[in-house]
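User: Sequence for PadR family transcriptional regulator below. Tokens please.
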Amino acid sequence: MPISADAIRGYVDLMVLSLLRDSPSYAYELAQRITSMSGDDYAIKQTTLYSAVKRLEAGGLVSSFAGVSPSGKPRTYYRIADAGLAYFDLKVAEWRSTKSVVDRFIDAASEGVSQ
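Assistant: Structure tokens for PadR family transcriptional regulator:
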């Protein structure tokens, strides 16, 4: 079942930062990797991705530099900054807490328990 953009909106930055932890990348490649890693359950729109990398860059969490793609085309690459690594860790902890709280409600509903 495809994931709606509304459901994942708050986690796009986390996904981008997680990919940039591995290596610098350009926007199209990031979009392809997001789709691939999601098992085709989520395909990010280019406008959403560009907004995310620009927001992360404005916040000092990533930096950009000119490079050339494997096909030889000029590209703007993004790399995670030290502040981005710290922010990533913070957002992972936040995600785990959020998931834990939501799981409690889902589990209670599945068991027919109300509080």
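The CA atoms of residues 21 and 33 lie 13 Å apart.
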